[in-house]
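B., you asked whether I could sanity-check this one before it goes into the benchmark set. Here's the sequence:
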Amino acid sequence: MSLSSNSCPALVLNADYQPLSYFPLSTWSWKDALKAVFLERVNVVSEYDQLVRSPSVELKLPSVVSLKDYVPLPDNVAFTRFNVFLRDKFTCQYCVKSFKVEHLTFDHVIPRSLGGKTTWDNVVTSCRRCNTFKGNKLVNKTNLKLNKQPYIPNNYELKEIGKLFPPNFLHKSWNDFLYWDSELEP
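And here's what the prediction gave me:
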């Protein structure tokens, strides 16, 4: 049986056993995870039942690995379109409806044509409809209302928001590391 490179991904934890990121979830392909195991860069925390074989070795694929060396979060959050969407929880800041990423854009609260900059504190998540309606006008010149003022988030905050948006694939061995601080069922 052959494995595709995107089957059996490994959850990647920092040396403190916290995921490097939640959204997008820090995962490696099974090939990259095995390579890191052989290079002794990670510890295998959990495994799939799936085996891979070579002429001399038979191994279970890692489902969770932890880095041997701690990687600190950067001081500043990268200003990217995706991180703006994550900060605003994939919600249009005008109509306050949630959308999939492909249906979102970002809007300059103070339009660039009026001197607005493309910065954390002037850009918000917007659906295409609201963005088109607002155009290059100030919010107070429309009947739109800004839900929340834009701001610069920190890495901890984006990591916490990312926990609210689980990926499509979650292996059962990942639960203890993704939701360790959630309330347990009686």
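One thing to flag: The radius of gyration is 21 Å. Otherwise nothing jumped out at me.
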